[in-house]
Amino acid sequence: MLRDKYQEEIDEILSRYPVRRSALIPLLYLAQREHGYITEASMTEIASLLKLTPPQVYETATFYTMLNLKQVGKFHIQVCKSLMCALVGSDTVVAWIKSKLGIGPGETTADGVFTLTLVECLAACGTGPMMQINDDYYECLTEDKFDRIVADLTATGSSALKSGPFMWPEPLAMKSERPIG
After folding, report:
1. Which of 107-111, 130-134, 161-165 shows the lowest per-residue confidence on average (mean pLDDT)?
2. DSSP 52-79
3. Which element (helix H / strand E) includes 8?
4. Phi then psi for 76, rounded to 5 degrees?
5. How far is residue 153's CA from residue 48's CA, in Å, rounded to a whole number?
6. Which of 14, 63, 81, 134 has the least C-beta neighbours within 10 A?
7. What is the mean pLDDT of residues 130-147?
8. Is the CATH code 3.40.30.10 the one for domain 75-156?
9. With contact defined as beta carbons under 8 Å apart, do 116 and 107 qualify?
């Protein structure tokens, strides 16, 4: 259970929010980090922590595409399917993924390394075509860049071509390290 392993982190998350319910998404992220996706048991435990019903937690977990209710690969590739991204080449990115990794939307490679998900918006309209892999953005993609990203991730688990992650809410430790003014 989450409490057994993460009680200190749960307490820190809850301390950020005067209204307990507001901690729902950060706690869902914690559960997702633990298992790679959000289990039904985790949702029930979070509901208990926040004094919510399990359906209230489930409706939030199913609303956001950044939350996974089933296992995804080690590298979760998300490509925006909105009109703006389609106009700058998101369909081409999906075609590269299909061609080079052999998976389509909602599929995971046989080795469990890559999963492709189409999402509604990644808020990077000016830097498309782009994709998000786990918490990292990869923008202004070309086929060569895509190939290098996949090779880097496969070889080392990271790629220097990332332009993120973008974190919210900003952890307290980071706020205290940031210079004022």
Report:
1. 161-165
2. --HHHHHHHHHH-TTS-SS---SEEEEE
3. helix 2-15
4. -95, 105
5. 38
6. 63
7. 93
8. yes
9. yes
